[in-house]
UniProtKB/TrEMBL annotation, chain A:
Pfam families with a match to the protein in the record: Oxidored_q2
Predominant subcellular localization, coarse grouping: membrane
Entry's Gene Ontology cellular component terms: plasma membrane
Keywords recorded for this protein, A-Z: Cell membrane, Membrane, Transmembrane, Transmembrane helix
Organism: Mongoliibacter ruber
Similarity comment: Belongs to the CPA3 antiporters (TC 2.A.63) subunit C family.
Protein name per its UniProtKB record: Multicomponent Na+:H+ antiporter subunit C
UniProt keyword Repeat present: no
Automatic annotation (TrEMBL), chain B:
An annotated GO BP: ATP synthesis coupled electron transport
Family: Belongs to the CPA3 antiporters (TC 2.A.63) subunit D family.
Topological relation to the membrane, as annotated: Multi-pass membrane protein
GO function terms (MF aspect): NADH dehydrogenase (ubiquinone) activity
Domain NADH:quinone oxidoreductase/Mrp antiporter transmembrane, first and last residues per copy: 116-405
Location within or outside the cell: Cell membrane; Membrane
UniProt keyword annotations, A-Z: Cell membrane, Membrane, Transmembrane, Transmembrane helix
Species of the source: Mongoliibacter ruber
Record's protein name: Multicomponent Na+:H+ antiporter subunit D
Record's keyword annotation contains Ribonucleoprotein: no
A GO CC term assigned to this protein in UniProt: plasma membrane
Amino acid sequence: MELLLIFIIGLLHAAGIYMLLRRSMFKMIIGLILLGNGVNLLIFLLGRLVKGKPPVIDEASKVFTEIYADPVPQALILTAIVIGFGLQSFAIILIKRVYKVLETDDLDELNSTDEEI
Amino acid sequence: MASAVLLLFFWSYIKAQKFLSVILSLVGLGISIWLFSAVYDGGMLVTQSGNWSAPFGISFVADTFAVTMVLLAAIAGFAVSVFATVSMNKARLQFGFFPMLHFLIMGLQGAFLTGDIFNLYVWFEVIIISSFVLITIGGKKAQLEGAIKYVALNLLASIFFLIGIAFLYGLTGSLNMADLALKVQEIENKGLINVTASLFLVAFGIKSAVFPLYFWLPASYHTPPPAVAAIFGGLLTKVGVYAMVRTFTLIFVGDDFLSLVLSVMAALTILSGALGAMVHQHLGKIFGYLIICHIGFMMAGIGMMTELAIVGTVFYLVHDIIVKTNLFMVSGIILKINGTQNIKELGGMYKNYPLLSLLLAIPLFSLVGIPPLSGFWAKLFFIQGGLESGEYILITFIVLGSFLTLWVIAKVWVEVFWKKGVNLPKKAIGRYFHELRQREKWVLLLPIVFLSIISLYIGLGAENIISLSQRIASELMNPAAYIENVMSQNQIEL
């Protein structure tokens, strides 16, 4: 399971960076989304994977007696997903707006800010 | 206690009115002053949200550094809030400028006060989402282009930050900064710690626009209206510096490799910022490059990592937040009077508005640090700190950066204020300055007067600020008290 996750994370990161390096604005956003998902999986993996051991304490004891699945990384990922979702939807709307105003999807043509006004 | 400051800014979400916004900023300023004096007299305040004790719950820590930054953010927020009531046009205000401004300040204050690394990430997101809205509001062509660059780079920075947090959690199993400070010391695998630290460095470096990562700043900061640029230039890059100071004094302490990287980056940041400011003709861009240059000074202080240098960094942060906010408002006034920000076209300001020019001279020249104005003292500490630790190359860059800043400011002064003015063609920028009513003119000038008085105070009453910075620096260099305060049980209940 760990090995599979590692490959998926690597693939997501590679694909995300590849997309970021393209010149199209739309592909840039897809790249950022892929990277974001890759990072979420990375947090999941680095929080140690434990199978079928929910973090629930037995009635009999006061503390954990055996290894349990850490709930903190899952909370982190949940937060990161929600925040990432909000940011991505904003970015997509922004790109749509930029496309309407500038009528181009090519990042190389966004150079009017570098001219002397 | 901390949440009182934070919750306050939620209120303005409901009614976006100029009046309410100004009043609430004033109340926020009052509460920040109260918090500041409470911490300054009574020592560090810690609160745990959700009643989980550290290291499990999310802590909010108000040490001297944090409350100083909160106070500065409140001052800058108040000034910009007043400035924006007149300088922003109606359409932008209708799209929720004020609520977003308050969310931004709330995010900043949260980021300053939090004692939890993941919570810091969340506050960063609050900051960037409201700054995205602020930078795109109004939507002209250049502004949208600047916004795309800004948004893309900041999203990338967040991803780097998150990877860093993932590694840190994987290594230590903790997110509380005080707890991390203890656990990171124990880890044998120094290589992995350095990798993690570098990830944080890249994330905060993008935020604060240091040398290889600064290209988004000059491309975007001159595009939004001056009120927005003022709060961005004054505070947004500084929150990156704040986070850097926090993590590199508390969590990743005393590594030669990191100090070297920081110093090299600082030197190149100073150089590239100063050179960029020299070649540009647009006021907004010149000030944008000057931000980069002066971020380099603060980085140099972190790179040297001696107590004296940290005093310099903290002093410079205090000085820079006030002065940079003021500078962008000055450029807004110049735009209002003349209809352009190109210094080749401008001129004759001193002849037409002599008193106003004298007022505008205060932020311009305190930026250079002509003694006794505020920038001077911080540089003194950098140079002392550098001499102490033998970083002569870094000192050379700092002195060089100061001279180039002087050159740039002198150029701005000569071109804008002393040169013979020409009658500029009218442009559609809303109303010009002389068309405003008397009351509105005063409202525009009031925040500049306010911030100028503060920066004069920083310069003339420097001993107070120096003793404050020394206290902050000694707290930062000896994090034991911070850790002990966070981890101990006797804390104030919310």
